[in-house]
Amino acid sequence: MKIRLLLSLSLFAVGTQAFSQEALGAWTEINWPNGWYVRPVHISMLPDERLLIWNTNYSFGQPLPDTPFGTAVSPGTNYAYNVFTIGNAANSTTNLFCAGHTMLWDGRLFNAGGHLIENGYGDDRVNVFDYRLPNNQAWTTSSRRMTQLRWYPTTTALPNRRILVLTGIGGSKHTTADIPDLWMVGVPWLPGLADYHHALPPNASMDNYYPHMFIDPKDGNPFFAARGWADEGVWPNQKLDLVRLTWSTYSTFPNGTMNVHGFYPSSVMINAKNWAGIRESIIIKSGGAESSGEHEPATTNALFADLYQDPPIWQAAAGMNLGRLNHTIVALPTGDVIAFGGSLTFGTNGVPVPSEAKPRTAPELWKPFVSDRATRPWKFFNKPVPADHEIPRGYHSTATLLPDGRIAVGSGEPDDAPEGSGNEHTRDVQLFSPPYGGTDAWQSLRPTIGVDCPTVIRYGETFDVTVAPNGTSGRPVTKLMLISLGSTTHAFNENQQVVELDFQNLGNNMFRVTPPPAPKIATPTFYMLFAVDNTDLGPQGETRIIGIPSLSKMVQLKDYEPIYPSGGALTKGTAQENINWAQPYSLLLGDNQYLGQGINFGPGFTGSTAEFVVSGVAPITDPTKVRVHIESKTVGIADLTISLFNWITNAYEPVAGPLVSNQAEKVYETVVTNTPGKYVKADGSIKAKFAYVQRGPTFVWPLSARADVVEFGVR
Fold first, then answer.
1. Which are the contacts of 71, defined by CB distance < 8 A and separation ≥ 6?
2. Per-residue burial over 382-406, b = 16 or more CB atoms within 10 Å of its CB, e = otherwise
3. How far apart are CA 571 and CA 599, in angstroms?
4. How far apart, in Å, do the first and last CA atoms of the chain sit?
5. pLDDT digit string (tens) for 535-560?
6. Element (H or E) spanning 240, and its range?
């Protein structure tokens, strides 16, 4: 990999004035007109608060180079990204242009697919960026490849730490990649990066380009919020059952005409409390064009639905003031959303020439949690000034929330840049400061999260932290918000999760905070924690942002430390054919892979048995809790007992069961308290036994048990 010297630049910010007495936001330029020198077609916030940005380092129609360009942008003091350090973070194996990307549970960035040979050809490689390593060592390319070539795929982090990769197109005929991939990264005994399999059934009823995926907080299953193509029919909204790995239609649109259109809309989901104090998980979608035509106008339509409803009911919101496609909706720490950029049409070859494409340079605000949200109009904010700083932010533009509450807005096809000119993606980057609390002078009025804020928080386990109101305003803090680190491209943030936290004010600025209760609410990864007060200085009766956010604190929301089985053995029953019991652990992590074809019960009917054990090594040797997880089903009905090996008594000790197991695949999980040396040996060794006892007297052939996704966890 070619290594470039770090370049530190001290730059001046150019501010703007609001064009009315009402606070309407302010723009700051970054190194005008050169920006970050790399156009942020792809932008991801890292746990160390750097921004990893990339596009491609060749002009369309030109030969591919060996090293696609990437840059890590480090902020200056107090998140001053206009005073920054650039570091070369190029990937030497894969052109990551038009890849999908999201964050793994440990903070590494997962990238799927990319650009090979030509637009639409795609790539089948997986790359991971480890922010903890030097830039020239941070990229790793998996030795395993995806099922299909992918260009424009979506990657979704799942509650079980796996990554779901969906659609995109690829190959010389730009064929739809309709076979979903599941990835597990960093399994220690497997070669390369991942335990990967492609057993998921094909799904052709889904958007080819960056489908909009969310996690349903009711059950943790992925939800596809269909965009719909009005000229080709509307794709159904769908859910994937992560246990059975089957798709089903879920939450149909009331009618096709109310749907936002399919060509480059934007959407986001926020889990927060509404005006009545009731928790909702609102998806808001807006804009998009009716078809893929270059001159097809974008719609102003907006829809919203609450995923806590079953099924969610889609409702029409007030339309945006301007039709937009290729815009990006960004969730704010206050629970509001702003639509940035976009244009009325795609423009010839994607170039938003103002006279033709009519780029949208004024952001718009919408409030998802107010009582009149179905009719509440969208609110225009300021454009950049002077006029020549109104950069077209259309195709390939991005907008990303920063740790200080501002939004970095960049890229987009510049005015009159012909394809092949090398200037297809503008590098001029601007920071937008929303009028939090109804004022543009909000930064001096922030509340503060104390230095006692933990860096690691765990599901359902409360923590205490100092949260102080601003010394000048004295406004009380009314919200604590977790917002995941953005990973945005092509009008969609694939890593956006926003969750309002419950808390108790203990007095003296001490808050007792309750993290989300389970990964289905917020998947394990890194988040920005914001405190928001109730400042409201804006004109009453106007749509405005209520509340001023603190500087965020970076926290990692963790589940149990995962332990994947490194060995296993059949102890009772007989294995069916085609099972390699010498290495059963190679099948213990798949989804619907099972342990080969199954374990036959011993001879006889009622009371016949099937039993196997698995072992692993814990990353910590003195945990207080141990978790055992298995997905299982049986042909026939059986009782399942889960036991952990007690290293003190030198015997297996039942910890769950008997549990009823039948042909419906189920998740069985138990958590037990551990004392030193009991279930985890001093060297980290841990063992579990899964024993099935056949119920009778009905004879079922073959009598067998099947297991899947066996793993331990400790904390």
1. 36, 37, 38, 52, 53, 54, 86, 87, 88, 89
2. bbbbeeebbbbbbbbbbbbbbbbbb
3. 10
4. 38
5. 998 887 778 899 999 999 999 999 88
6. strand 238-241
Rounded CA-CA distance 58/295 in Å is: 26
Torsion of CA 42, 43, 44, 46, to 10 degrees: 130
The dihedrals phi and psi of 373, each to the nearest 5 degrees, come to -65, -25
Q: In this predicted model, what pLDDT tens digit does every residue of 157-196 receive, in sequence order? A: 999 888 999 999 898 888 889 989 888 776 554 444 444 5
Neighbours of 201 (CB within 10 A): 12
- pTM summary value: 0.88
CA distance 201 to 275: 41
What backbone phi and psi angles, to 5 degrees, belong to 222?
Answer: -70, 140
**CATH code of the region 7-438:** 2.130.10.80
48: left (phi over 0), alpha (psi -120 to 50) or beta: alpha
* Per-residue CA distances from 395 to 289, 318, 419, 480, 672 (Å): 13, 24, 13, 34, 52
Let me know: does 133 contact 109? Beta carbons within 8 Å: no
**In degrees, to the nearest 5, what angle opens at C-alpha 73 toward C-alphas 71 and 75?**
175
Domain ranges of the chain: 7-438, 442-559, 562-714
User: CB–CB of 511/505 below 8 Å?
Assistant: yes
Length of the chain: 715
Closest alpha carbon to 272 in 443, 450, 118, 482: 482
Q: Note if the bond before 418 is cis, omega within 30 degrees.
A: no
Give SS3 for 546.
Answer: coil
**What would the DSSP string read from start to end of 354-370?**
HHHH-B--S-EEE-TTS
For 45, 46, 209, 498, 559, the CA distances from 269, given in Å and listed in that order, are 18, 21, 19, 7, 22
SS3 of residue 558 by DSSP: strand
Give 391's pLDDT tier (boundaries 50, 70, 90).
confident
DSSP string, 8-33: EE---------SSSS---EEEEETTT
Please return the burial class of 17, using the count of CB atoms within 10 Å of its CB with bins 0-12, 13-18 and 19+: exposed
The yes-or-no answer to whether 7-438 and 442-559 have a common fold is: no
SS3 label, residue 220: coil
Q: Within 10 Å of residue 186's Cβ, how many Cβ atoms?
A: 18
DSSP string, 246-270: EEEE-S--S-GGGSPPSBS-EEEEE
- Name the one residue in this structure whose structure tokens are 């605000």: 365
Asked if residues 601 and 610 have their Cβ atoms less than 8 Å apart, the reply is: yes
3-state secondary structure of 147: strand
Please state which CATH number belongs to domain 562-714.
Answer: 2.60.120.200
Topology of the domain comprising 442-559: Immunoglobulin-like (2.60.40)
Identify the residue whose tokens are 């943790």.
220
For residues 235 and 131, give the distance between their C-alpha atoms in angstroms, rounded to a whole number.
37
Q: Averaging pLDDT over each range in 52-56, 146-150, 346-350, 600-604, which range is the top one?
A: 146-150
Tell me how far apart the alpha carbons of residues 565 and 710 are, in angstroms, rounded to a whole number.
Answer: 7
CA distances, 314 to each of 18, 281, 330 (Å): 36, 13, 20
Question: What is the rounded distance in angstroms from the CA atom of residue 247 to the CA atom of residue 270?
Answer: 24
Better-predicted residue by pLDDT, 369 or 204: 369
User: What's the CA gap between 497 and 103, in Å, rounded?
Assistant: 11
Burial of 334 (0-12, 13-18, 19+ CB in 10 A): buried
Whether 334 contacts 479, CB under 8 Å: yes
CA distances from 597 to 246, 411, 594, 622, 645 (A): 19, 51, 7, 36, 26
